[in-house]
Structures are given as structure tokens and as C-alpha cells.
User: Fold this.
Amino acid sequence: VLTKVTCTLQSDNFNILVTSTNPLPSNNNKPIRVYPNPVSNWLQVQLPAFPLQSVQIQIVAPNGQPIYSTAFRSKEYRINVGNWSNGLYTVIINNGNNTFKQKILVVH
Assistant:
């Protein structure tokens, strides 16, 4: 069963319920964009509908350790990942009320 914010899978052995976190606001159906993905040099973060308030961005390495953290007050932000190791990282964006998470793949 698939709804706007949940997905339920059933089998003979188990049930899985996936519920999304509250997404950060978007405008005119333009979601938060974190791109390119995969990335090799510069990661771009766009918040098209976000009011200019402080937003925290954190990136977690494949080993689970936070490797990048900053606050910014703009609709776009760039992060240089050119010297990061190849791997799957998690981008976490938080405005104090809502959290957005996306996996990115760094490849060189």
C-alpha cells in the first residue's frame, strides 16, 4: 500500500512500514535539490522555497562519522567534495522544525 508519506509491504513472514520524516517546504512542486548525484567535485544544494533563515547542513561519511557541518542563510549552497573518498554519504538538512535526508554517491 503506497500513500503520499507511507509505504507498507507485507509478506508471509514480516510487515514493513516506511514513514517519511516531515519534508522541508517546497515551492511550486520544486523539491529541495541536492545534485549532481553521483558527484565528483562540487555538490550543489538548492532550497527554492525556503525562507532566508538559518539552515543546518550536515554530511555523514560511509562509516557513520559526521565529516561536514555548516549553517547557511541562502537559497543555494555549494560544497567541495573533490578530496573526499569514494563512497555513499548522507546529506542531512535541518531548519529546526523539519529534516531532509538524501544519500549521495561520491566518485572520482
About this structure: Residues 1-11, 17-22 have pLDDT under 50 and may be disordered.
